[in-house]
Design a protein that fits this description.
Structural class: alpha/beta
Family: Belongs to the tRNA(Ile)-lysidine synthase family.
CATH topology of the largest domain: Rossmann fold
Pfam families: ATP_bind_3 (PF01171), TilS (PF09179)
Number of domains: 2
Shape: globular
Mean pLDDT: 91
Strand order of the largest sheet: 3-2-1-4-6-5
Enzyme class: ligase
Subcellular location: Cytoplasm
Order of helices and strands: HEHEHEHEHHEEHHHEHHHEEE
Protein name: tRNA(Ile)-lysidine synthase
CATH class of the largest domain: Alpha Beta
Radius of gyration: 23 Å
Length: 343
């Protein structure tokens, strides 16, 4: 008799991702190494908070990795935002060790205030994960985001009015060199929790996940249930499909913008307003966003309203002055050219 369907589902999801990682890493290592060297065994980490999603992911990684000759380790990040968080991190380390993962790290971080508490905690967490991956030479880090998390992310992006890229949610592969992998984006949160129950894995329910002070928590416990009550079941699945469709469209438009960017610049590299005006708005705004980021504007602080203001220098020119952008970047129109530079 095989494993419970929930356990089988999480293992299959992880197995597919590990196959991808192994194929990529083997090809890269083969190109770089001496043919007579020993076979390469990549290291894959799981980022684990101790919650149901990440514990299910850790258990599946521990089960599948050895069969593929992959080393499997674990990382837990202590944000220090709750009393006893250090003890909680120690418990997670013990659970990961019991699963047979190695190496295992518990990393304490200092959470700032930029962008609000949720964004600041996320930034600190990813910085710690990036650092650990670099130190250990890890091929990838698995994250336990589920289809429910994806639906919440799409709704948050919709509320911000940030455009189609924001509606595309989280990518299955992201980060420098494709470091972050999300095997569970097509699985719901219930499947991960059920897998933990079937394997008798203890899980921790973060009180922040039910704290109405946090936007995502309110969305999870109030917003999505209200939508399902009004629209019927299937909202989460529909939002996840929207994310994938939006990502496909956004990727295509980004590629288009990259292809045409050189054609709208003059010999000195400045953007020509007349040529920009001729582009479809979605493509033009992507060119403008890329130019602003190249000039030093932080991508995470560059919002749709900033790009719209710059776009009006092209489409609604009435002698406007300098447009101030994040990162002390300025944009202005000069003699039919758009100049975006450090102010």
């Amino acid at each position: 008799m095989g494993p419970h369907p929930a356990v089988a589902a999480i293992r299959l999801a992880v197995r597919r991702v590990l196959h991808d990682i192994l194929t990529e890493q083997t090809a890269e290592h083969t190109r770089a190494r001496n043919p007579h060297e020993r076979a390469f065994a990549p290291l894959v980490f799981v980022a684990c908070s101790g919650g149901a999603d990440s514990m299910a992911l850790a258990s599946a990684l521990a089960f599948e990795a050895p069969k593929l000759g992959i080393r499997a380790g674990g990382i837990t990040v202590d944000h220090g935002l709750q009393p006893g968080s250090d003890l909680r991190a120690e418990e997670v380390v013990l659970r990961l060790r019991e699963l047979g993962l190695a190496p295992i790290e518990s990393i304490a971080v200092s959470v700032g205030r930029d962008g609000g508490p949720e964004a600041a905690a996320r930034d600190a967490r990813y910085a710690a994960l990036d650092d650990a991956a670099e130190r250990h030479g890890a091929a990838a880090i698995l994250l336990g985001h589920t289809r429910d998390d994806q639906a919440e992310t799409v709704l948050l992006g919709l509320a911000r009015g940030s455009g189609i890229r924001s509606l595309s949610g989280m990518a299955a592969v992201s980060g420098a060199g494709g470091r972050y992998r999300r095997p569970f984006l097509h699985l719901d949160r219930h499947t991960a929790r059920k897998a933990c129950m079937e394997q008798s894995l203890p899980v921790w329910d973060d009180p922040h996940n039910t704290d109405p002070a946090f936007t995502r928590s309110r969305l999870r416990h109030e917003g999505l249930p209200a939508l399902e009550k009004a629209l019927g079941k299937g909202v989460v699945e529909a939002l996840a499909r929207t994310a994938q469709l939006s990502r496909d469209d956004a990727d295509a438009l980004d590629a288009w913008a990259r292809q045409v960017e050189t054609s709208v610049r003059d010999a000195s590299g400045l953007l020509e307003c007349a040529k920009l005006y001729a582009l479809p708005p979605a493509v033009r705004r992507r060119v403008l966003r890329r130019a602003a980021i190249e000039a030093g504007a932080p991508a995470g602080s560059l919002f749709a309203r900033h790009i719209e203001e710059v776009d009006r220098l092209i489409t609604g020119w009435r002698g406007q002055g300098v447009i101030n952008l994040p990162g002390k970047v300025v944009a202005q129109r000069q003699g039919g050219r758009l100049v975006i530079r450090q102010g």
